[in-house]
Amino acid sequence: MKVLVVDDEKDIVDLVSFNLKKEGFAVEKAYDGERAMRIIRDSAPDLILLDLMLPGIQGMDVCRMVRRDPRLSYIPVIMLTAKTDEVDKVLGLEIGADDYITKPFSVRELIARIRAVMRRFESGGEAEKKKTFSYKGLRIDYDSFEISLDGRKIDLSPTEARLLIFFSKNPGKVFTRSQILDRVWGENSFVEPRTVDVHIRRLRAQIEKDSDNPAFIVTVRGAGYKFAAARE
Length: 232
What we know:
By secondary structure, the chain is of the alpha/beta class. It has eight helices and eleven strands. The chain has helices at 10-22, 33-43, 59-68, 86-94, 107-128, 158-168, 177-185, 194-207, and strands spanning 2-6, 26-30, 47-51, 77-81, 99-102, 132-135, 138-141, 146-149, 152-154, 217-220, 224-227. The chain has a five-stranded parallel beta sheet with strand order 2-1-3-4-5, sandwiched between helices. α3 links the parallel β3 (47-51) and β4 (77-81). The chain starts with a strand and ends in a 5-residue tail after the last strand.
């Protein structure tokens, strides 16, 4: 398995890389956010070990960019940072980090955390790498963005297609409107949270046989929305 280690402190990158290689991992290195994103887009590592404070693109923004990209959103991310403030930890987890380790850290604990996260993603992560999604007659080709229902092609707007792909890659997980805006529209898009409701209504009109009793994208009262079930 390939781990991307991203930190602006070369000594930490070298230490972590050395120990990961001893444990049988392949390792790539990056010392800033721009380089990290190039590697992620080019080679899609199995896990990203990501420092919070980076030159250029910050670690939080790297995580957001990974989670918003349907081709990359399955990759597990562990935040590695000197910040111990609980607010930073909560924010990191809310934007999609899978774990959070503060410096100074034990190399043994770090390896254990990496293995634990990878175990959780062994089945789900591999499924995310598949080129297509199929559930109850709904079929999505992630490469071509082609979507069909019971063999009939569905023409969605780019935003509706991104919404559906996002939900299909996170089945059963509830997302608030703010989280959906962040993942699908991006944090720099100045749109109201209710915009999510409008697009979901339009999407349901295209893919649901009964929009009042949806089979795919379900409203979770008081929380947000989720994709109804696990994959076939």
